[in-house]
Every structure is written in structure tokens, then in C-alpha cells.
Amino acid sequence: MADKIKPVRDTNSEAVALARSLIVDAHFGSLGVIDPESGGPYVGRVAVATDDAGAPIILISTLAWHTRGLLKDSRCSLLVGEPGKGDPLAHPRITLACIAEEILPDAPLLPLVIDRFLRHQPKAKLYISLPDFSFFRLSIQSARMNGGFGKAFLFSKDDFLR
After folding, report:
1. C-alpha distance from residue 136 to each of 12, 98, 115, 154 (Å)
2. b/e code 114-144 from CB counts within 10 Å (16+ = b)
């Protein structure tokens, strides 16, 4: 009997470095939440930056459907990785399983979050001070990365701790 092909590679320092760069370099992502009405999945596009520990930070409106989902159930996923020319499936991407934590307006770290977010997302200056927008930190619980064809990796949250 032929040897089975192992679809997931062992996590190594090169894979962790690629995963971290996909997260830190991301300007947008697809945020998956539990739909608060149907209980099914819902995905929306969000602007992304990272905090000083490398965790994704998103700024979203309370009017957005994905915010309603996060406020009801903080479990979410975030897909990042930009396709380039040619086959979009040939380019690396990572899906993060996260717990969203709202950063409240009186949080001592909010000024640092705002500064980092605006350096990464300067156009957010147009809406960052609107009263219906809030920051959420996405605490990574696990991740799955496709680094291109035949390059699948699984990560635990420990792989992202700095």
C-alpha cells in the first residue's frame, strides 16, 4: 500500500514567520461571525491592524452586522492574505480562530491602539471618531495557514505569543 500523503506539515519557524507576516501586513480581512438572528455563519470585510503583541485589531461600526454578531457571541474567525497575480489559491493565506474583546473608550491602552491603527490605516481618520465605531482586539486561539499549494500548517495560540 502506498504511503499516505500528509496534508498538514509540521509547524516550523519559517511557517510561524510567514503566518505572523500575513497578519501584521494585512490591511483588510474577512471576518466570520455567528449571525445573531439565524445562528448561521456571516462574513464581512474589515480593516485590520495589529497591536504591539501582534494580535489583530479591527475598528467596526455598531451598525454593521458583524458587530452585532460579535456582541452576542465573541467567537469569530479572520481570514487574511492578499492574492496576487494568477491563481488566487496559489498565494498564502491564514484563517485565525479568535475571541473578540471590545476595547472600551476608557481603556488606558486606547490611545496606543488608535495610534497604531491610524499608522496602518490612515484613511480611518475619516471615521475613527464617529460615536458608533469601536475597536476590538482579536485574541488568537488557533490558526490554519495555507502557504500555497501543498503547504498547510496548523498553529496553536502559543505560536503567536511574543
Report:
1. 29, 11, 15, 24
2. bebbeebbeebeeeeeeeebbbbbbbbebbb
pLDDT at 1 over 60: no
Q: CA-CA distance, 99 to 73, in Å (whole number)?
A: 9
Verdict on whether the full-model pTM lies above 0.85: yes
Residues in a beta bridge with 134 = 60
Is residue 160 a contact partner of residue 140, using CB atoms and an 8 Å limit?
A: yes
3 or 29, greater pLDDT = 29
Q: Determine the Cα–Cα distance for residues 140 and 57; give it in Å rounded to an integer.
A: 11
Mean pLDDT value of segment 115-128: 96
Please give the grid coordinates belonging to residue 62: 455598531
In the DSSP assignment, the letter for residue 54 is: S
Residue type, 57: I
**CB atoms inside a 10 Å sphere around CB 103:** 17
Distance between CA 86 and CA 90 in Å, rounded? Answer: 8
First-residue to last-residue Cα distance in the chain = 44
The pLDDT of residue 33 is 98
Give the Cα separation of 41 and 77 in Å (integer).
10
